[in-house]
Amino acid sequence: MMFCNTCNKKEATVFLTQIVDGKMQKMNFCETCAQKKGINDPSGFALTELLLGLGLTQDVTATAELTCSVCELTQSQFKKTGRLGCSACYDLFIEELMPMLRNMHPSLVHVGKAPRHFAQEQKEKESIQLLQKQLQKAIAEEHYENAAELRDKILALQDVASTTPSVAHSRDREVQNIFPFEATTDGNDAKLI
Amino acid sequence: MPNINNNIVISSRVRFARNLKERPLPGVAKKAVLIALMEEVKAAVMALPEMEAAFSKKLEDLTLLEKQILVERHLMSCEHAVKAAGSALVLNQEETLSVMINEEDHLRMQAILPGLQLQRVFEMMRAVDEQLEGKLDFAFHPTLGYLTACPTNVGTGMRASAMLHLPGLVISEQINKIINSVNKMGLAVRGLHGEGSDAKGNLFQISNQITLGEKEETILQRLSEVIEQILQHEQNARTVFLQQQPEILLDQVGRSYGILSHAYSITTKEALNLLSLLKLGVDLNLFPEHVRLPIDELFMETQPAHLQQGAQQPKMSAKDRDALRATLIRTKINAMPIPKLQAALEG
């Protein structure tokens, strides 16, 4: 049990964190002493925090606050309004979001419609994954001719996908890692390393 | 096949919330960014064939009265109506498709049709969505789906709803039981103007709450099934009354007719509640079918902004509106034949 810093008698139920001249100070009070000192709710009570089960005692001032680099929404702004500032916020605040989403929806995985280009990319990704599996098998079984064909197919699919460069780059790395060939730039067959 | 023209389901609506990838949402965007976003989205929306000769206005160019009319017609939300520069509305000529730009999300697009036509409004919305995704880069997460300002909309970003007229369930005091069971199915029941509004005119809006983890088709299917069941209950309630206590229904219709045909000042709420019972009277064949349209029209014409627009008065006190409303109703009702109440009781 944590005791009140003022009376040292009763259990502390009110916790105050203040930043004074860049230094963090933590104080613990029992309800009586907190009332005497006029500390009602220094954290700025927000109804959404209570409703969304985010917890009022979480100390957001202790460390540098999470802030979205795209829209500059801070974690405390998000906790207060329950609204995200941009699509990038979903990745940044995913930890806080998950319990909220769990309360609202039966599952955390979208199964409905997707933009066409996304569905297309998804399909290509799956084809590439399948070919990569076949490629690994071909290599393991030392069917190098077959492996070379599969590699060409993978590269061709990646060319199609290169309209979205960031995705294509990460795929390039994936393929190269499992590839025991030397990449050739002249379009000839690859040589075994 | 659901009965499209049944008189209990007033309208069907589907709305999609969409946002542009990695662009600040209306709640946090600075004014200049918001205006640029609005222009970009508006150009894409206006280029849709569905939006040929559409009504397109920036929020700052709409008068207060115009905004109120749009809200009363369910073509704009109250939240959108209070927005200023940086937001806009695009509405097709038929008033069946509307796109609110920079409401809570970058795009809130909706399709609305009379009667029970959820599948059709969904198809309308899907067609618009698929055309726009070729022009605008929508924020879509591989596991969370379409990303929205509020996590309650994430996933499909879809809210499907139907407006139901349920006087039978209200008079028989079964409505709360129905609302409770509908809520347990993961569906919400709201009043005439959505969130936070009370049920005037025995009108109830039923909509899905879940947007993540279920396909759009599954959500629509469940909503349609629940609506069909509510329709059945409403029809049963009316039949039971007619068979066992016809005087209760006739009393309600007769009194409403009496007040509406003799009132000289009436509020929106009272007018809607009484018009609802006249509408019930038409459903029960107490009035000839040809009075259905003028009664249905009064539901909209007696709303405050519609009333002022009709009188061409941008400013009007509530007292003057109540008097004007009563005159409009009296004129229309007195042109209708007197309901055959006694004949119904004896027949």
Description:
The complex is a heterodimer of chains A (193) and B (347). Chain A is mainly alpha-helical and 193 residues long. Helices cover 46% and strands 9% of the residues of chain A. Chain A contains eight helices and four strands; from the N terminus they run ββααααααααββ. Chain B has two domains: 5-236, 2-Layer Sandwich (Creatine Kinase, Chain A, domain 2); 245-346, no CATH class. Chain B has helices spanning 31-46, 64-72, 78-81, 118-132, 167-171, 175-184, 216-244, 246-262, 268-283, 292-301, 304-310, 318-334, 341-346; strands at residues 9-18, 55-58, 88-91, 97-101, 107-114, 140-141, 145-146, 158-165, 187-190, 203-208. In chain B, the strands form two sheets. Chain B has an eight-stranded antiparallel beta sheet with strand order 2-3-4-5-1-8-10-9. A two-stranded antiparallel sheet of chain B has the order 6-7. In chain B, strand 6 and strand 7 form a beta hairpin. The chains are: A mainly alpha (193), B alpha+beta (347). The interface between A and B is large, with 33 and 44 residues.
Rg from Cα of chain A: 28 Å
The assigned CATH architecture of the largest domain in chain B is 2-Layer Sandwich
Number of helices, where a helix is a run of at least 4 consecutive DSSP H or I residues of chain B: 13
How far from one another are the termini of chain B?
Answer: 32 Å
- From the helix content, strand content and strand pairing of chain B, which structural class follows? alpha+beta
The coarse overall form of chain A would be elongated
Q: β content of chain A, as a range?
A: 5-15%
Assigned CATH superfamily of the largest domain in chain B: Glutamine synthetase/guanido kinase, catalytic domain
Q: Spatial order of the strands in the main sheet of chain A?
A: 1-2
Average pLDDT over all residues of chain A: 70
Total number of helices of chain A: 8
| Rg on CA atoms of chain B, Å | 22 Å
Annotated CATH topology of the largest domain in chain B? Creatine Kinase, Chain A, domain 2
Count of extended strands of chain A: 4
Quaternary organization: heterodimer
Describe the sheet with the most strands of chain A: 2 strands, antiparallel
Helix content of chain B: 40-55%
